[in-house]
Amino acid sequence: MIDEGLKSELQKQGVYVTSLQELYNWGRANSVWPLTFGLACCAIEMMAASMSRFDLARFGAEVFRPSPRQADLMIVAGTVTKKMAPLVVRIYNQMPEPKYVIAMGSCAISGGPFKQGYNVLKGIDRYLPVDVAIPGCPPRPEALIHAIMTLQEKIRNQKLTGPDRPRHLNAEIEGEYPVPGYGEHDLEPPKNPEVWQPPAIKR
Amino acid sequence: MEALEQIKARLGAALPLTKLDILPNECPAGERSLLVEPGRAFDVAKFLRDDALLKLDYCSNVTGVDWPEAKIKTKVKKKVVVEGVEKEVEETIETLRSGHLEVVYHLYSMELKHGPVVLRMRTENRADKTHLPSLTPVWRGAEFQEREIFDLYGVVFDGHPDLRRILMWDEFVGHPMRRDYIAPDDFEYEPTPHDEVLVEAKKHYPVEVKAEVKPEVKA
Question: Does the pTM of the predicted model rise above 0.90?
Answer without folding.
Answer: no
